[in-house]
Design brief:
The structure holds 2 protein chains of 2 kinds.
Chain A (H helix, E strand, L loop, with lengths): L5 E7 L10 H12 L4 E7 L12 E4 L4 H24 L3 E5 L1 H5 L3 E3 L5 E3 L6 E18 L7 E14 L7 E5 L9 E2 L1 E3 L2 E4 L10 H16 L10 H15 L2
Parallel strand pairs in A: 1-2, 1-3, 3-4, 4-12, 5-7
Antiparallel strand pairs in A: 5-6, 7-8, 7-9, 9-10, 11-12
Chain B lengths: L6 H6 L3 E6 L4 H14 L4 E3 L7 H12 L9 E5 L5 H8 L3 E4 L7 H4 L2 H13 L5 E5 L3 H4 L9 E6 L25 E5 L5 E4 L12 E10 L2 E8 L2 E7 L4 H16 L4 H10 L6 E5 L6 E4 L4 H12 L5 E6 L19 H4 L4 E7 L3 H11 L6 E3 L3 H10 L4 E5 L1 H15 L10
Parallel strand pairs in B: 1-3, 1-4, 2-3, 4-5, 5-6, 6-9, 13-17, 14-15, 14-17, 15-16
Antiparallel strand pairs in B: 7-8, 9-10, 10-11, 12-13
Helix pairs in contact in B: 2-8, 2-9, 4-6, 8-9
The chains are: A alpha/beta, B alpha/beta.
């Protein structure tokens, strides 16, 4: 009998972490599932709201304004932190962008030395710098994440340094990535995908979107065979930006 | 350009000046004020070209001063960039400062909307004698009144407008004073409406210049009832869409605070048509081509709601560039509700153009628009041909530099005069 597949997405703090077109990632995941006849539901989980995290297959956390980020740290410490760490260890899929990505690490230290404790779900930390890294950029995904090239827009002043045991999401081709120093971009730990690429990241990089969806389908159903889609608009948009950035 | 540091202070000394700042609606509001003042017989200095940084404002005053060292008129209406306000207002000491609204805009330039708010406040603290005209329904703008000495005139809609569902994407969810989540008695558009903070009590002030009803709204304009200084007025605004109702209320408030005759401003509003790409109409062929500048999600979604409410067939041209004046980051297009176009059977065809046309094309696909309705066309001569031969009205929604290009294309083709050649 054909199994009717469905993925449940939890969009965390959409009312606060919604800077820079983040909801485009949700639109993209939903459409690419629907086009393949796979069901998709999205729950918005705001500050103060509780939910059973074991019902979700994918968690999405976007970027936010500094002023609003403080508001949600209190909410995280109110129990969500333990559930999220458990979900990470359980192999559930996370797409985390910019501020949401930083939040998965141990802490954020401002350049005047104030330390803000984060989730610590993945071994990395972020240190504030005085120069903002802002521009179109591109990177090549690691083999475990499919190996395709990703184009995006980065806008962050925090420099992220990965712990010894965790892999970057990819290697910078042009731009800054995690810190502008070691050539790494983002993080890949179990099924956690973290990146500085907002803008949003998925529509122009459909192969990455499919890798993310597959990771959730494999965990839930033990297999994932995503039908190929006609990605002509996606490829056109990807290639136009790639050409603009690299001149190639 | 180099100027003696206080040259702007020297040439503007003794003039009565209105400054307009805020994310959206600066040019339209300033245009309404300038038109009304001009129609009242005054000679008005205005930076019509949109050069609204310190250098542009200084150049405008110096050009007007000519050889005599002083502009011939005594009155100026100056549109000022939010970031430049703190440099400009201490020099020109305006009598009135209007703040239209605060939305996310060109984030890669300013960082974030809270930072923009701080910059505006820094400017206002330097001119305690200026009367502030603040949008009462914008929780960010109205918070400027907290902790400043200036006299304040609030303006805004004193009634709900449009869909009243809670906002999922908003530029101001949390109380600017205490961080609690706002509640609303009603919404008007985006984060604007009758907000209040259940925790600290910060809330909308009832506007002194208040739109109390919207009687009719179509592609050519809007009929409203408005109260100003206790008097009631019926007004026709010669521009469509809800944000122009706010712009009109802002202009009336500024006129009122300036001590001018509100009735005369109401007359002027009916004759206002468009300013520089903001709802300008061209006639290159049989059908009208209407240009509506969009540069951020709030304005864009409002424009989409307006077009999809018309109930008549139309063709769309969406222009997206990513040059410095536009902001290099075009990700805001994912926050605007293009999904409404997909649900509107009156959208016949959508042409996408500009440096980032491919991104716009992709956005429309994911919005649910049929791929065969979307056409990528970067050659402007072909777009012009499309506009000339279209059998349905055409709406062009460009961002800033795309607007400059398309406007030139259309004005060359139709012989329309440049906006700065507009004769009083």
């Amino acid at each position: 009998m054909e199994v009717i597949m469905e993925l449940k997405i939890c969009h965390l703090y959409p009312e606060v972490l919604n800077l820079y077109g983040d909801r485009g990632n949700i639109i993209c995941m939903r459409r690419r599932l629907e086009w393949r006849g796979i069901g998709c539901s999205v729950d918005l989980l705001r500050i103060g709201e509780k939910a059973d995290f074991t019902q979700y297959d994918i968690f999405f956390i976007g970027g936010g304004q500094d002023f609003e980020q403080e508001v949600l740290l209190g909410d995280l410490r109110d129990g969500k932190d333990k559930s999220l760490i458990a979900a990470v260890e359980d192999g559930r899929t996370f797409l985390t962008i910019c501020g949401g990505y930083q939040m998965m690490g141990h802490y954020y230290e401002t350049h005047d030395g104030v330390k803000c404790e984060f989730l610590g779900a993945v071994d990395f930390c972020t240190v504030g710098a005085d120069v903002r890294m802002i521009d179109n950029y591109c990177f090549k995904l690691g083999a475990e994440s499919g190996g395709s090239t990703v184009v995006g827009f980065e806008n962050h002043s925090g420099k992220t340094y990965l712990g010894a045991g965790v892999n970057p999401l990819g290697r910078v081709i042009k731009g800054n990535g995690n810190n502008g120093e070691d050539g790494t971009e983002g993080v890949r730990y179990k099924n956690v995908f973290g990146s500085y690429s907002h803008g949003p990241i998925l529509p122009k990089n459909p192969q990455l979107c499919d890798v993310i969806l597959e990771s959730a389908l494999v965990r839930k159903y033990g297999k994932a065979e995503l039908e190929p889609l006609t990605d002509s608009f996606e490829v056109q948009a990807h290639d136009a930006v790639y050409k603009m950035i690299t001149g190639a | 350009m180099f100027f003696k540091k206080d040259v702007l202070a020297d040439v503007s000394e003794g003039m009565d000046i209105i400054v307009v700042t805020g994310t959206n609606g600066k040019t339209t509001t300033a245009n309404m004020l300038e038109s009304a003042l001009t129609e009242s017989g005054q000679k008005v200095l205005a930076n019509k070209s949109g050069a609204n940084l310190l250098s542009g404002v200084t150049a405008e005053f110096c050009c007007a001063a000519g050889g005599t060292g002083k502009p011939s008129g005594k009155i100026a209406v100056i549109e000022c960039d939010e970031g430049a306000l703190k440099q400009v207002v201490p020099l020109i000491k305006p009598k009135v400062i209007v703040v239209t609204n605060l939305f996310r805009d060109q984030l890669d330039r300013y960082g974030e909307v809270m930072h923009t708010l701080e910059q505006i406040k820094t400017g206002i603290e330097k001119v305690p004698d200026a009367v502030l005209c603040l949008n009462s329904g914008d929780s960010l703008v109205s918070s400027i009144a907290l902790g400043v000495k200036n006299k304040v005139v609030y303006y805004g809609l004193d009634m709900p407008f449009g869909d009243q569902n809670p906002r999922v994407v908003s530029d101001a969810i949390h109380c600017v004073r205490c961080g609690a989540e706002y509640r609303y008695n009603f919404y008007t558009y985006a984060h604007l409406g009758d907000f209040y903070c259940p925790n600290c009590g910060y809330k909308r002030c009832r506007p002194e210049v208040a739109v109390t009803s919207i009687d009719q709204m179509d592609a050519d304009g809007t009929d409203i009832q408005l109260v100003a200084g206790g008097e009631e007025y019926s007004a026709r605004i010669g521009l469509p869409a809800i944000y122009n109702v706010y712009n009109a209320a802002a202009a009336v408030a500024a006129y009122y605070a300036f001590g001018s005759d509100v009735g005369q401003m109401i007359d002027t509003l009916s004759r206002i048509h468009s300013s520089f790409g903001r709802m300008e109409t061209f006639k290159p062929g049989r059908q009208p081509v209407q240009m509506i500048l969009v540069k951020n999600p709030a304005g864009c979604t409002q424009t989409i709601e307006f077009l999809t409410s018309l109930g008549k067939d139309y063709v769309l041209i969406l222009g997206l560039n990513d040059r410095t004046a536009d902001g290099h980051d075009i990700s805001w297009i994912w926050d605007a509700d293009y999904e409404k176009f997909a649900a509107d059977p009156h959208v016949l065809k959508v042409y996408v153009t500009g440096d980032r046309a491919e991104d716009m094309q992709l956005r429309l696909k994911y919005a649910g628009l049929a791929e065969d309705k979307i056409c990528l066309e970067k050659r402007t001569e072909n777009l012009l041909e499309t506009m000339k031969t279209s059998s349905a009205p055409v709406f062009v929604m460009p961002n800033y530099t795309s607007m400059l290009e398309l406007r030139k294309l259309l004005s060359d083709a139709t012989g329309a005069r440049e906006f700065w050649e507009k004769q009083e």
